[in-house]
Amino acid sequence: MGNQISIKIGVEGLALLGPTGTPGTFSAPVRFVAKRGDKVVASRFQRTSVTIPAGQAQASFIVVEDNILVPFD
Question: Are 28 and 48 within 8 A, CB to CB?
């Protein structure tokens, strides 16, 4: 196996309330995957909190995962 490099992956998401949903704080699962072709070379999972304020039906969130090591050939 060759050397490794460190990468940073970010994602922006939007939490939406359904027709019967109520505002509040929700836990959102986020999986970061780095692939080379069809092969997964790194994978990380984390949860983030998203708060939809009163009177709103949606809220955006941003999650960044640092220092994901992937093979560098």
Answer: yes
